[in-house]
Amino acid sequence: MANLSEHMTKARDMGLDNGRVPVEYYTSADYFRREQDMIFRRAWLMVGRVDEVPEPGDYIVRDLPTLKASVVIARGKDGKVRAFHNACSHRGVALVCQERGNAMTFRCPYHAWVYRIDGSLSAIPAEQDFPHVDKATSGLAPIHLDSWAGFIFLNFAQEPEATLPQFLAGLDQMLEGAPFEQFPFCIRVTDEIDCNWKNLVNAFNEGYHVAILHSKTLRPAVVPKENPHLHYLDVKHFGPHSAGTVQRNFDYNPQAPALTWVYAQMLPTSAPDIAAIEEGRAGFYEHPGINRLKIPNFGTETITIFPNISIQPLANGYLFYQFWPINEGRMRTEVRIYSRHAPRTLREEYAMASTLAATRDVVVEDMAMSRLQQIGFESGGKTHQQFGQNEPLLRMFTRDYEAYLQGKGMGQP
Amino acid sequence: MNHPALPENFAFLAPFVATWGDLHTQDERYRRRQELPQGELEAFHAALAPRLEEVFTHLDQFDPQALPEAEALLFRVVLGLTEASQAVEIFGQPRVPYAPFPHSVAMEWVGYQPH
Ligand code: FES
Ligand SMILES: [Fe+2]
User: What is the ipTM, given to two decimal places?
Assistant: First the structure.
């Protein structure tokens, strides 16, 4: 790389001068209510992968704490994937009680109204007592669903203001054909913590903290000598979404005995597979939308999808992070570690458990810091926080956050 | 709690069976790691980390889905090192700095039953 600093995108390069952001956005119940209505009921929200429901009759249930929504996602006999509110048309019971399964009908456990896998109502016991109920229009309430690159998105608006491709605003084109489906096996890590969800969004949108907060975990493997504050490179933006290239430290060579043994069994999700890179079979490394600069010590492309997703394609899989507000001071983090396959041997199970513990501990560091940040915010001594020139994506997120709260953001003028 | 014996040749792990042998999930191991003194985590690491290859050479002989009781116990004890090594090789302390204590995290292997 001739001149790395040329590619360190600064806030001023993106015309973002909002370096002071009100703490109120992070502490006020009123802002949280506006986020529910103006962001989470308008934006397309990612909730899973189509390969979680591969066969007709397969279903999963997801709860979205932000909207208190319980959602059934099911693949119909016709092969189409649909989403419904998990609420019986009779008296409201959340009738699908298993987290996943395969069924052709759902039967409500209260009075046994029966629904087909496509959500339509098929049977009402003692139907003569419900002459006012039109079965044809009394199925489970549908939720708009579309998918991109195998990811399922929902939209909770009556009528979405934009289609999913319009919403993705070109990010989808840049990542067209990225091989997410090569990494179908997933470990899900979920935790709730007392902080505003945007603290976590911000933590995943800058590399400035990596050498400090993650000094023992990520720093040795990730922070290269030539970029000590891990400035993101080549920041690209697509509407409110973004991607930035992140290096890693190719000199990293762990010596500790347990970690060394793990590396010899199965490379961790994030560790570059040098042989695979040289042979051109290193998954995401080959994709033209990823690492456009062709930096030799490429680590990841950190991809942010507004409002609450971060995806990091890595050498041997990808990490998916999602941040759900529960209220202004509490949130749920869901992390998914995707890899090529489930463990085939006990050696691989040990290696994957070890990588899971290491990945989780990094997120625990981010969550722990976000909780301390919330304590500081709520103490009330500061009305603003500061976003530097080296934190352009925090300013960009704030700009688009404000636009959404004002009813804009989805392509409106 | 009564445990089956560890497989022959792995008696050196007997002192750690009471601590790690009854844990069945990664979260239980994570919590155990947080509550142990660093010295105990270090002793476990010192005993096992250099001998991982020996342990797995033995375990390689068995069907992972049908481990005999002694090998299942051995593997559960060994999985404790996935957490203990974070404390010993990474942090130099049992807990993630600044994290709440005790701290629990849900971890689910989708479509696979870990040991
Ligand atoms: S509430 Fe579902 S059948 Fe009565
Ligand atoms: Fe972080």
Answer: 0.98
